Amino acid sequence: xxxxxxxxxxxxxxxxxxxxxxxxxxxxxxxxxxxxxxxxxxxxxxxxxxxxxxxxxxxxxxxxxxxxxxxxxxxxxxxxxxxxxxxxxxxxxxxxxxxxxxxxxxxxxxxxxxxxxxxxxxxxxxxxxxxxxxxxxxxx
Length: 140
Ligand SMILES: [Cu+2]
Fold this sequence. Notes:
Order of helices and strands: HEEEEEEEEEE
Helix content: 10-25%
Strand order of the largest sheet: 2-1-4-8-6
Bound molecules: copper (II) ion
Radius of gyration: 15 Å
Shape: globular
Largest sheet: 5 strands, mixed
Number of strands: 10
């Protein structure tokens, strides 16, 4: 809970510091999981800009979107879930969605870089559930 509060404050302070408009809330990015794949193979984000990432699961099994290692401020933890991540460590960024449901995570990336996102459900990454998350100074 403490980490959650700290994340919110950090995102708010960051918004003020960079002078971007806080009024509109986080930038919404939606990605769909369907037929054992993501509908986007690439997501581009801007350093320091809070993002509301919504995973829409149109499939008949649970999916998630995870990045193992990415420096982020977390605004809101994704809904609790206890599905199997295999023997991997907890990813830095994680959002899951039950079949036919949505999952949301709010965060702000804090370092430029190219990161890989994937579904942690065993076998799904191998089946093609991966993509590239590009964080840059201008978001392009
Ligand atoms: Cu999956």
